[in-house]
Structures are given as C-alpha cells and as structure tokens.
C-alpha cells in the first residue's frame, strides 16, 4: 500500500513519456509564403492570406495528424517587388529551409525562376502563368495556365455568345512595362490574335503606369477603333482608371478582368458596389459566385472549423486554390518518400508525377496536371466566366475550354 504513490508517479511518468514520444514523432515540414501587405495588392492580400492559412489548418488537422506531419508556414512581405524578393530569398532559404514557396506573382517569378532549380525548392503560384516561364524543367509552377490562355478562352466565348460567331472580336489590352508579368500579358494576347485572325483582331496595347491617374485619351482611342472588349489582367488601379475613362466618355465597352483584380474588388476600389456591372472576371479556377458548388461547401467548412475570416471572393479563391495544390503535393511526397525525407526535390517530383483530380482539390480546380515541359496545367484547364449584376458576382459561363495559344 505504501508503494502506491510511487506506482502512480511511475504511471504518470510513463504516460508523459509516451505523450512526449508521440509529439516528437510528428514531423514539421516548413513552407515559405510570399505576400504583399505594403504594395499594389495590400488592399486584397488579407483575403488571399486567409485562404492559405485556413487550408493549411484544415490539412494539418484532417490529414496531417494521421500522417504524423504538420506543415508550418512563415510569411514574408515582398511588397510585390523583384528586388525585395531577390534580397529576402537567401535569408528565407537559410532560416526556414522550406520544401516549397507559395509565390504571389510576377516579381517573385522574375526574381527566383532561375535560382529555384539550383536551390531545389519549388514555387507554386495561385495566379495564372507567364510566357517567360514556359520552358522545360521549371521549378516555378502555376496552378492555372497563362493569363493569355485565360483571355483567349474568354475571347472565344465572347465571340460565340455575344457576336454569334459572325466576326472576330476586336480586343485591346491595358497593361504596363513596369513588370515582366504585365508586359507578358500583352505579348501572349497578341500571339493568340495573330494565330487566330478569324477569332480575334488585336486593336492596341495601351502601355501605362502601374497606378495611372487618367486614361481618358487612351480609352477614347480604343473606343474610336471599335473595340469590343478591353482586357485588364494587371491590377485594380488600372481597372478603375479605365472604368472612369469609359464613364467620362459615355462609352460602354466591356472590361475583362482577372481574378486578383476582379469585378467585386475593382468595384470597391471605384467606390461603387455595382461599379463593374456588365464587366467580366475570368480564371481557370472556381468562381466566387453564389452557386452552391463543391468549392463553396469547402469554403463554409473552413469558416466553421478552421478560422477562415476571408470573404467569398476571387482573392480568397486564389489563396485556397494555391494552398490545396501545395498540401496535396506535400501529402503525395510524404506517402512516397516518408515524412522525414520530404525535401523540396521530393515535392517537385510529386508535383510533376501526380495528376491531381478536382475531387482531391475540393472542387477549387478542375484538376491539375503539370509536366516537365509545361509549368502549368495543360489538359485539365478550363475557365469560368463571372460577371456582376446588382452588386453581386454571378456566373456567366462555366468550364469554358481553353484554346491553344502559340508559345511566345
């Protein structure tokens, strides 16, 4: 009887040791996330970041615990600047030893595209891809095809539905030479129009500042040329300046936006909740419309159980889509190599070897299939077209085929 306290202590100690062993058995895998909380995307970054973190929390609890793996993420503010990304990267690599980088956009690709193969760390983007990344053996991968592929899909849909296929769409683009990614958007759209004169006529590329003060003169020129659609895949500042110019001129030319500068975010920046009514946002990812989709159900789950505070919008969708591919790739590497052998090289190999299905990606993407020759999805990519009506984002068309665009 006198030995019971000792036995109780021994049992407690043994229990503690077992718990300690269980904790130690969990492997932590580090991921770096690049963000912009002080530059051109500062006003929408929180939504994208919230999507990222919620998916990681969901995976850690629902999948990682069973695999005895936890994915830890650390975020670095690059201000959407090439030089800032390049200067931060050596410290990120040394401090974190990440197996993957969640990139934000063009400056990150420009700064790190040539370094990543040597460093053996893949970078994954939730945005569309760029022509300068369309090379074999890439380590900077996009979960969507190029911006020009997405624009081409929209142009073909617009021609078929709005022009009844009777003539080519007269399309113009407003962009900037400030970043390689912005310039690439114009080059790719020109490449598509040149190869498909029966479907598209390229009117002009308006080259302007990243945050232009006024575009009335330039937009008047596009209107006088009979432009059917103005493509703006850059940022909300250019979208707002174009809309104000159209309003000043009394013109109603539809604008096609990308997801990161979509109709809802651009309307907020304009100061009118219905400001981009009748315009479009296009992306090869689930749209943030009111439809009760698989992606919407997953979003609700993240809200209810995993702390998601971000609104149901395109920027949140980009964060969700980027992260779901990231965790599935790490998951594939864990199952293939073992948790203690997951390196950047192993994750890169998993990205190239695995055809991720729409179900695995929680309906956020139709599927993702990378290859050594194409650092973005090829066979599985389709675009969704959304528009704005009465201040709400509504679907105009779903799963529109992405056409072939010649390499530029």
TrEMBL record:
<feature type="signal peptide">
    <location>
        <begin position="1"/>
        <end position="25"/>
    </location>
</feature>
<dbReference type="InterPro" id="IPR051010">
    <property type="entry name" value="BCAA_transport"/>
</dbReference>
<dbReference type="InterPro" id="IPR028081">
    <property type="entry name" value="Leu-bd"/>
</dbReference>
<comment type="similarity">
    <text>Belongs to the leucine-binding protein family.</text>
</comment>
<feature type="domain" description="Leucine-binding protein">
    <location>
        <begin position="28"/>
        <end position="361"/>
    </location>
</feature>
<keyword id="KW-0732">Signal</keyword>
<dbReference type="InterPro" id="IPR028082">
    <property type="entry name" value="Peripla_BP_I"/>
</dbReference>
<dbReference type="Pfam" id="PF13458">
    <property type="entry name" value="Peripla_BP_6"/>
</dbReference>
<protein>
    <submittedName>
        <fullName>ABC transporter substrate-binding protein</fullName>
    </submittedName>
</protein>
């Amino acid at each position: 009887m006198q030995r019971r306290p000792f036995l109780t202590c021994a049992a407690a100690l043994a229990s503690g040791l077992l718990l300690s062993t269980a904790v130690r058995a969990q492997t932590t895998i580090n991921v770096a996330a690049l963000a912009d909380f002080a530059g051109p995307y500062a006003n929408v970054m929180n939504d994208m970041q919230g999507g990222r973190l919620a998916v990681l929390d969901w995976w850690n609890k629902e999948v990682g615990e069973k695999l005895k793996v936890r994915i830890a993420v650390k975020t670095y503010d690059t201000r959407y600047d090439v030089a800032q990304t390049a200067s931060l990267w050596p410290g990120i690599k040394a401090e974190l030893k990440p197996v993957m980088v969640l990139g934000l956009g063009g400056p990150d690709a420009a700064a790190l595209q040539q370094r990543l193969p040597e460093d053996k760390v893949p970078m994954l983007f939730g945005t569309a891809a760029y022509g300068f990344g369309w090379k074999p053996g890439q380590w900077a991968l996009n979960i969507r095809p190029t911006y020009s592929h997405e624009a081409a899909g929209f142009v073909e849909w617009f021609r078929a539905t709005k022009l009844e296929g009777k003539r080519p769409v007269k399309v113009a683009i407003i962009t900037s030479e400030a970043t390689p990614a912005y310039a690439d958007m114009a080059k790719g759209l020109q490449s598509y129009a040149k190869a498909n004169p029966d479907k598209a006529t390229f009117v002009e590329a308006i080259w302007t500042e990243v945050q232009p003060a006024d575009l009335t003169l330039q937009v008047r020129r596009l209107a006088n040329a009979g432009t059917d659609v103005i493509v703006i895949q850059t940022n909300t500042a250019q979208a707002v300046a174009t809309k104000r110019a159209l309003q000043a001129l009394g013109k109603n030319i539809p604008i096609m936006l990308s997801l990161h500068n979509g109709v809802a975010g651009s309307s907020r920046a304009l100061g009118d909740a219905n400001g981009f009514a009748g315009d479009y946002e296009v992306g090869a990812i689930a749209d943030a419309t009111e439809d009760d989709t698989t992606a919407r159900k997953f979003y609700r789950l993240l809200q209810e159980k995993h702390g998601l505070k971000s609104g149901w919008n395109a920027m949140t969708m980009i964060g969700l889509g980027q992260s779901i591919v990231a965790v599935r790739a790490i998951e594939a590497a864990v199952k293939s190599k073992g948790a203690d052998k997951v390196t950047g090289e192993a994750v890169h190999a998993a990205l190239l070897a695995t055809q991720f299905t729409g179900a695995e990606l929680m309906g956020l993407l139709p599927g993702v299939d990378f290859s050594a020759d194409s650092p973005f999805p090829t066979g599985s990519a389709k675009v969704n077209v959304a528009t704005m009506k009465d201040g709400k984002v509504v679907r105009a068309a779903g799963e529109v085929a992405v056409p072939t665009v010649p390499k530029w």
